[in-house]
Design brief:
The chain is α/β, with parallel strands linked by helices. Helices cover 46% and strands 13% of the residues. Helix 3 packs across helix 9, helix 6 packs parallel to helix 8 and helix 10 crosses helix 11. It contains 14 helices and 9 strands. The longest helix is centred in the C-terminal third of the chain and has 28 residues. Strands 1-7-6-5-4-2-3 form a 7-stranded mixed β-sheet, with helices on both faces. A two-stranded antiparallel ribbon has the order 8-9. Bound molecules: pyridoxal-5'-phosphate (PLP). The site of pyridoxal-5'-phosphate has 13 residues, from helix 3. InterPro entries: Aminotransferase_I/II_large, Asp_trans, PyrdxlP-dep_Trfase, PyrdxlP-dep_Trfase_major, PyrdxlP-dep_Trfase_small. Keywords: Aminotransferase, Pyridoxal phosphate, Transferase.
Length: 365
């Protein structure tokens, strides 16, 4: 059982091209007039569409943001890392522990110092006290790197009250929020998943956002994403965009157009795409509920019930490294290092097998 892979899988174990994406591609193939160069900011319709998608139409921060297309979310992270290193080289980037595997290497490669704060379960959700305690060491001007939703690898998301407290903490300590949004639509729905990000964007004059279409449009190999900078006013955001373009020029010049053109089409004709995305989300939620229910039914420890509360494709199971090894050696169940499993990678018939194996490695350590 391969639970390592970081992509969505449907009930048959495939990562299909969405039908709405196929329709967009048919349209683009028939309408393409030229493959001439685009600008350094990439596809402008895409930039506008993704900004409205993440902030929500009518959000006041739309007027004071600038978004440029990047080589997926990874490229956006590096571009923003380079920008921070250029504008404020002594700023530290605070990232969660455990973190998305690429956050630390990308920020370090940009020349920034990285510090961590714990991201773990309490009895009811995110252990917020531990976050506040660790961030006591952060200084004004430091960057707080958060996951917009569906935290990778833990699946632990802040409640709206906790997002509000994060916003206050940033104000009190002079921290700049940086939200990495890679799974919008996989947690509670496209708007609910962006609620924390939208709250921060409304309450802060400076903020960084990185965006990915890999998961919610299933455009993994098309490398489609964006970097957004929110500033105190439109002129400032425009200046920062020029800096981002300079950094992009020295890297790859312009991002590839195909994925962004597909995404722009979907933002303009969202109905079929949002329906397919909702089906993916429901499958992940159902897998979570079924696995938690199965574990409960066979009397596995209560702590596994956090699976139901957690969001998105990943959860970090409360397993020791020897228990992870036993899952592999005795049951051929492969999770990632640290106990991360891809809940979206689970086939329906695999759920009882996984639950049984988890109970066994717990019962006889
Ligand atoms: C938290 C997070 N950020 C960013 C990314 C980058 O994804 P991509 O480069 O495919 O857009 C991922 C991918 O797994 C992720 O989990």
């Amino acid at each position: 059982m391969d639970l390592i892979v970081g992509v969505y899988r449907d009930a048959s174990g495939k990562t299909p091209v969405m039908e709405s994406v196929q329709e967009a591609e048919r349209f683009l193939a028939s309408a393409a007039e030229s493959k001439s160069y685009r600008g350094l900011s990439g596809n402008l319709d895409f930039n506008d569409g993704i900004a409205r998608f993440v902030l929500g139409s009518g959000h006041p921060a739309l007027e004071r943001q600038s978004t440029i297309q990047t080589v997926a979310g990874t490229g956006a992270l590096r571009l923003i890392g380079d920008l921070i290193a250029k504008l404020s080289p002594q700023a530290k980037v605070w990232t969660t522990d455990p973190a998305y595997v690429n956050h630390l290497p990308i920020m370090a490669a940009a020349g920034l110092e990285v510090q961590t704060f714990p991201w773990r379960e309490s009895e009811t959700g995110l252990d917020f006290e531990a976050v506040v305690q660790a961030l006591d060491g952060a200084r004004a001007g430091d960057i707080l790197l958060l996951h917009g939703c569906c935290h990778n690898p833990t699946g632990i998301d802040p409640s709206l009250e906790q997002w509000s407290a994060i916003s206050r903490l940033c104000h009190d300590k002079g921290l700049i929020p940086f939200v990495d949004m890679a799974y919008q639509g996989f947690g509670d729905g496209v708007d609910a998943d962006a609620a924390g990000l939208r709250l921060l964007a409304g309450e802060h004059e400076q903020m960084f956002v990185t965006l990915s279409c890999s998961k919610n449009m299933s455009l993994y190999c098309e490398r489609t994403g964006a970097a957004m900078v929110i500033a105190s006013e439109a002129g400032e955001a425009e200046k920062v965009r020029l800096s981002l373009e300079q950094i992009a020029r020295a890297n790859y010049s312009m991002p590839p157009n195909h994925g962004a053109a597909i995404a722009a089409y979907l933002f303009a004709h969202p109905e079929a795409w949002l329906k397919e995305l909702e089906e993916c989300r429901m499958r992940v939620c159902t897998n979570r509920q079924n696995l938690a229910a199965e574990l409960k039914a066979i009397g596995a420890p209560e702590k596994f019930q956090c699976l139901e509360r957690q969001k998105g494709m990943f959860s970090l199971l409360p397993l020791s490294s020897s228990q992870i090894e036993r899952l592999r050696d005795e049951f051929a169940i492969y999770g990632a290092i640290g106990g991360r499993i891809n809940v979206a990678g689970l086939g329906t018939q695999q759920i009882p097998l996984l639950a049984d194996a988890l109970k066994r490695v717990f019962d006889s350590p």
